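Handout, section B. The chain below has 156 residues.
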Amino acid sequence: MLQKTVEATILQHLLEFADQLKRNGEFLLQEFGLTPQQWLILLHLVKDPNLPFTSAQQPEAPVLASQLAGFFNVSRANITNHLNALIAKELIVQTEDAGDRRRKILDLTEAGRNLVKLVEPQRHLENEKLFSSFSSEEKTEFLSYIQRCLVCVAGQ
């Protein structure tokens, strides 16, 4: 029989929290014709310092399609579908690496940069509303807990 544990309850609440965030994010991004995955790709290309992936990279290093596939833990075909949609919307460009033509370097177009600038204030506002009842210390502590959980999951 199932028993109630703090660990299981935390995980179930985190899953519900993630699901709610995803739904709210999808609703916000629909207004701009984006999916959450496409938005995350744009954030990677603009090198959002809030993303764990970005903070581990050199600021001047190009972003490669293969890196994004690895970050999202999806196949190259899957990430290619998202990239093709962003290319069709003229938000990103993909070029061959001069040193290795198999590598695809990704970059934002001017339209892509403008879209990020347009969406960012709304994202910031939504984030502020979400954490408005938290003190600065609580936010820092919450981030620390999440980072520790991610380290544990990655080590499994």
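Note. The chain has seven helices and three strands. Compare this with the example in section A.
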